[in-house]
Amino acid sequence: MRLRRLQIPQESGVEGARAFIGTHTKQWIGKYGKNTMFFCTNDTHRVSLMRELVSKDGMLLGANVFDCAEALGVEYADDEDVSGILERVESAVEEKRLVGRFGVNVSSHIFVSTLGLTEYARRILQNELREKDMRVALSDAFSLFSKGTRWRVAPYTDLLTGKEVSNHVSVFSDIHILGKFSLPVTDQEFPEKYRSIRFGRQ
User: Fold this and answer.
1) What's residue 147's pLDDT?
2) At what angle do helices 65-72 and 82-95 cross, to 10 degrees?
3) How confident is the prediction for the chain on average, in pLDDT?
């Protein structure tokens, strides 16, 4: 596996970034191949990138159900249940013959983290915390707000120092591959060799 970092010029702005994605996605796929898995760290640009990948038979990991719906032209109501939107997204993926090319987080990490952490704090304040291990207790609280999604909370390692940070955690959820299956991310052990990788400050 090889990793490549592609960066949009900072001065582009939102519209400029979208135009940049539109003109460069075909080049990226041509250069790195159709089996290149894209991952976008900027929420603002993810739908634009996914639209391009949908039209060019590309691959993307890390989108959410709403990103997919917008990129595929699936309409939904603001108060609609996510499971109903996901069903229509799956149908659109099958229709466009893109099964297995997009990995999504079925539950919104921002939504679940906000409610899960609030529930965790409430249990502490009201003396209702049953689990002594913070990681198990957090996973249990997150599960209340994410039907059908499994969570795993693990120690966080600072990649600059290689040391565990006691008041931070890493949070994982399983990833659903549209039209196929779920990747059991929460069952995986993080290989020790990757903990030795160091990232310098930019």
Assistant:
1) 77
2) 40
3) 87
> Please, what's the b/e burial string for 164-176 (b: 16 or more CB within 10 A of its CB; e: otherwise)?
eeeeebebbbbbb
Q: Please tell me the distance from the alpha carbon of residue 81 to that of residue 182, in angstroms, as a whole number.
A: 20
DSSP β-ladder status, 59-64 and 102-105: parallel
Q: Report the run of H or E that residue 39 belongs to, with start and end.
A: none
Residue showing tokens 């159900």: 65
Place of tokens 């659903």: 176
Q: How far apart are CA 7 and CA 62, in angstroms?
A: 17
Question: Mind giving me the DSSP string for 139-189?
Answer: HHHHHTTSTT--EEEEEEE-TTT--EEEEEEEEEE-EEETTTEEE-GGGPP
- Judged by DSSP in three states, 133 sits in coil
Give SS3 for 61.
strand
Q: Measured between alpha carbons, how far is 10 from 27 in angstroms, rounded to an integer?
A: 20
Q: Report how far residue 24's alpha carbon sits from residue 62's, in angstroms, rounded to the nearest whole number.
A: 20
User: Which residue type is seen at 18?
Assistant: R
- Structure tokens that stand for 69 in this block: 């719906």
| pLDDT tens, residue by residue, 133-190 | 888 899 999 989 887 788 888 888 887 888 889 888 888 888 899 988 888 888 888 7
Q: How far apart are CA 44 and CA 149, in angstroms?
A: 24
